[in-house]
């Protein structure tokens, strides 16, 4: 509903107070998330300084441990920005780990061939879902739900057991560290940052990116403006499928096995990261850099819980839920202010 | 009425396709297990494949019935799985703390606590959707993510096992030769049908789903109706949670009711309720839930490897959704329809709200 009533960035009238103007600023959620990340990091520093929380490597580990989530969340940003949703992310990640593990270990294909195959399969899955969503006008929610079942099922068809990857090429890739002076990054983290940079460029500086914003803002107007609605929508889901498959490869690299139960529910983490990063769930507005901060905040929660030691893992879920709720309410306040 | 027109009236009935799918699935089993439909009496209890389909399907039916009303208002509730886990965890942890686990008052109090927690979750969802105007998918996502954490917090990450015979009755006991849970399901379905089809409530729900703003302008308190359906859905999920935890005599914060929200949505869709809201069919949903349970049972009995269960389910979702999509029907069956009759009247009849008593 708010998608149709929300006006595009109209210049604020002169009478609006400074606080209203601040609330109307689209960058606010991103700034809040970045601020939250800083506060959490400083709190972590003050509490666990003696346990080595201040080491640069701890900070870099946030990127290493969450590289796959970052890539998946970037894909989800594309979809959510266009006003859709993709629930198949976790399943595609799980399927990619399974497929690559099976191709490398049991079929014996070289890794150089397996990587494009996996990416192609993921992108094709996304393309199919986008095709059905656009051409048959079925809700994205239900189509990607079918995708969730399908890919998780295909995992189990490949094998019910997890497949450990003993291939030396994968092992050496996973072990490779890129020194950065103060610490080092894994290949996965570097790939994730490259994906982030590419997504930033595409979403904010290309025609395709502006089309996604327009369709997310108001599909009807975008259509009337003559934008290629179908092509863009299908492309968005293809990008999401590709990102999920790439995230699956990074996850496989990180964990060095394929398992039919890998990454169950990761679509929720990805969506949560996007929302916390300030992308409007109704589509049309958001920053892919916000997604980075969303992922970092989620990662930081995990490492703080590890450093705390006494807290149990389920607090991660509760904290994620509380953050999600807070940011949804912030978005709500922002959009209602704009309407008035 | 000539035979073809009666046949057409039958196929046009909104329950025809769900029932046809259910019957077809049941018949598939016969060549593999010839006595599939046999029901026999052992120790005063009725046993048979049909009984176990209803027994194992009963939590899903409950959740799906609640979900039907939410979807009828144009919403969706993703949090039911988490509510199932929370209710089971609270009830079981209360019972396990008691000295006498068999005491009736203790069991009732425990169930009360569990259901109150479910209602609170429903109120929260309803508040976010109706008062704050947040999209239902996202509003209920919060409890879906956080709820499992809360459930694990309650059980302390452990699986709480209990040994209480009155509590076990709900999900695993027998009454009048039938599983007790069948009676619970029957009662909930009967109450729901009576409330929605014998009073104006069902009409109001459909009005809100059709157009919330218009229904508010004609004087329906659409917000109150929305909050009500979320509370009802959570309550149904709570009862399902009691049933699941009672059947296994244990509360598992992590796995109880996992993915039940997806199965429930699937059941609602198979039952012919449009995801866009505005019309619903409780009877269709019950049949949809039975279809899903039968599908699972069929996969076991005909010896298809169980791991293809999910692929099967995905195929069913895709086919059902495609058949429900007007555009798909126009593309695939359109050529034929245009020869026999102009397409427009058929399309109008299709989109007109159906008000049959289900």
Name the features.
heterodimer, A: 340 residues, mainly alpha, ABC transporter involved in vitamin B12 uptake, BtuC, two-stranded antiparallel sheet, 73% helix, globular, disordered N terminus, B: 358 residues, 2 domains, 17 helices, 6 strands, 5% strand, disordered C terminus
Task: Please tell me about this protein's structure.
The complex is a heterodimer of chains A (340) and B (358). With 340 residues, chain A is mainly alpha-helical. Chain A is built from 16 helices and four strands. In chain A, a hairpin with a 4-residue loop joins strand 2 (177-179) and strand 3 (184-186). Residues 1-15 of chain A have low confidence and may be disordered. Chain B has 358 residues and is mainly alpha-helical. In chain B, the strands form three sheets. Chain B has a two-stranded antiparallel sheet. In chain B, strands 3-6 form a two-stranded antiparallel sheet. Chain B has helices spanning 3-12, 16-29, 49-72, 80-96, 104-131, 136-155, 165-172, 180-197, 201-210, 212-217, 222-248, 260-270, 282-301, 309-324, 326-332, 334-340, 343-351, and strands at 39-42, 45-48, 159-161, 174-175, 178-179, 250-252. The radius of gyration of chain B is 21 Å and the shape is globular. Chain B has two domains: 46-310, Orthogonal Bundle (ABC transporter involved in vitamin B12 uptake, BtuC), CATH 1.10.3470; 325-358, no CATH class. At the A-B interface, helix 8, helix 14 and helix 16 of A face helix 6, helix 12, helix 14 and helix 15 of B.
Outline of the structure:
Chain A is mostly helical and about 350 residues long. Chain A is built from 16 helices and four strands. In chain A, strand 2 and strand 3 form a beta hairpin.
